[in-house]
Predict the structure of DEAD/DEAH box helicase.
Amino acid sequence: MVACPMNADATQALADDLLTFIEQREAAQIAYGVYDVTMTGAEVLAGYRPVDVTRVPLVDRERALKEALRWLAAEVLIICFDGADDPAEWVFRSRIAEMVRLLSKLRQRLPPRSDSERRRQHISRAKALSGDVTFHVVPRQVPQRRRVPADYLALLGDKPEHADCARLLHAAITTHLPKLQKLSQFQEDALREILQVIELSAARGSERGVVVTAGTGAGKTYAFFLPVLVKVILDRVLRKKIGVKAICIYPRLALSENQLRDFVEAIFCVNQVLAAEDLPLISIGIESGSAVYECSDFQRTDQKSQASLASRGWRYDAQFGGYLAPFAYCVGSADYDCAQVPQQLGVLPNASRTLCCPACGATYPYILFARDVMAEAPPDILIATTESLNKRLITAQYQYLFGTHQFCAPSVVMLDEIHLQTSTAGTQVALLLRRLLARVRLGKQERGEQANLAFVGLSATIADPRAFLAELSGIPAQNISEVRPKDDELEVIGAERYIFVRAGEGEDTAVISTLIQTAMCVLHTMPQPPAGNPLARYRAFGFVQSLDVVGRWLYQMNDAEKMQPGLQEKRKQLREQPVRFAQWPIAAIPLYAYRFPPYNRQLFPNLFGAGGGNGCGCEQGHPDQNCPYFAAGECWWVLSQKGKARREPLNIRRKSGADRAQPIMPDDDLIITTSALEVGYDDEALMCVIQYTAPSNVASFVQRKGRGGRKVGTRPLVVTVLSPYKSTDLFLFRNQHLLTDPTFRKLPLNAQNRYLQRIHGFYALCDWLAYRAHSAGFPLNIDYLSRSALAYLMEQTADV
């Protein structure tokens, strides 16, 4: 049982569960249009029931709940309307409920053109922007992590080489890898199932599938990567096999680069243990748009070379004197900046084969990023995209990736986010996978190997995952096993909050005006990291469906925040002068300050008529519900609480496929993007996702909202702004459960598509020709046929 008084961690855990209870109660009333919802402390003390039913009962219930309420009030996660000492006497609402109320009252506040117009501005002339606002709270269920290395590494058994592998991994995990020091039961189950296929069962040359399904942040990546590490240590380190052991396939370039960052850290730690015992090191390579064909590309630093490498994501840094990689960061060295701030690895012109850290100088020779270097000794683990694999399969010089007489064939092929593989594009991937598995099979036959092959699919929750993976990979469903977290291993930590805003139908306002005002309200009033958190601020992603909207949102948002360079300099000069904020030129004042107390009353003293609300001093204490500014949603009270809200203009950045060389900076508040970043960006500071209009499909929305709150126990916010004029938007506003509680039913995938089969049948012939050409030592490249290559093709296909 929990003792009272509770320690800080216990208080915060209880406060988190209590806040979920409060927000759920408020959401029930908001569903009926009661936006001014309030609760009392007595009501909470009497009615609280743990959202997490596994919580241990409290010894001194009332005292513990009062401590939790005080903590919530101190962090401004609830907003009290009086100054009573006893929490039982408080009247309050949650901070998110207050945000919902503000969104329901949004008005179009345009900058006045003169000082006299500013003083005459009246609330009645400001157009309402919100047609309707709804709010949902979904508790987050995550698998409990209780399995320690001694437990799950015991799966390897007692064979000498298996015991050596377990010993090496145990040393690396317990010393350097906290992410693997405790696993959940489903991660251990995945380890067992994959190892059973590739190592523990008799080698018969069979192909079996394993599909791992779990929610965002549950740990699917390490459920797959740990058995890969085991296989690589056995084959490369202990059996001295050279070649690719595992191919990790990702549907997006950004996702492949993000996963590579995680793997680099794990391999770095394992290699430290291997190096201490003078054993071969593990390598990892990238086969995507970021990879270069020759490492000599980095030896040139002229403008043309810089532009060429920038198109692949490599940014030239004059201070470093070389190119910074878009996919790899330093693990961090003590007493250097890279230990505190993420530092991109780079490559110098005079050492173009090896990545190094510009801050500490550490080198990473085991990361392979140039194809000519990989041809000499293929990486043990290959990170690839579907597009790059298609090109490599049909090119003779890259056949070393899939198994040849010289290099071993992969034992594991993994495809991430399989639920994204639907419709025609998904069918293309399904047929590509069949070609890949057939080519790996050829590689094993050439070497006379009988090793089994595991095809692993990672996914969000889908209906009948075994049948879907069977259709995707061509492996019979009876040869596929499913791994997922069981209900009894889940616990509730944190919650996801969903806000849906339907724009008003006024003739004088555009839907994007609702988006701009919504984004300002959410980002300036959303909760910030609590005291003691190493993060300085939270940030948001804004997702749209087209680059045109990206540009419009960026321009208009910067205009509303007054972040043009000239206005930033103007504000800097004004701060150095003894001029009151209310007397600044109105053109230099951001629009959010129109609701920032006390400046809202000073800037617009007659917004509610002469003398309306001027006597309110809510910024000195608690908000006054009777103040006309507060009641009308024209007072964003949390801005007055220093350190608890974003009180400065927002730093806004665009990030699309064309902006790959531009990194997201630590002080960015809003990143506006398209589908380019809906998968593969993990950032603990990302706590809010704003979706503008309906996403292309539910799977896309799941990926986008999954970017927020990646750390277990957080409370991400997902805000969706929908148009009243689009049928898809109206449908989703009326059927919000499709987005808040999605379960993918029968996913549309047709691997029997006759037209696509013909296309990939031709590609399969090209795969075979490339394989034959490599065996014959002929440099065949289907994309760039020379006269001699054409003659070779005619000769090889004469009898086809």
Notes: The chain has a mean pLDDT of 89. Residues 250 and 759 are 22 Å apart (CA to CA). The chain is about 35% helix and 15% strand. Residues 185-291+370-485+752-800 form a domain with the Rossmann fold fold (CATH 3.40.50.300).
